[in-house]
Amino acid sequence: MPLLVQNEEKPMDIASMHLFGLSAVEQAPETMLNLQLMSIFQSSRVADSRVLITVNSITQDYRMGDVLPGGAVIESILADRVLIRNHGNVEALLLSRPYPDLDERFGN
Question: Taking all residues of the chain, what is their mean pLDDT, rounded to a whole number?
Answer without folding.
Answer: 79
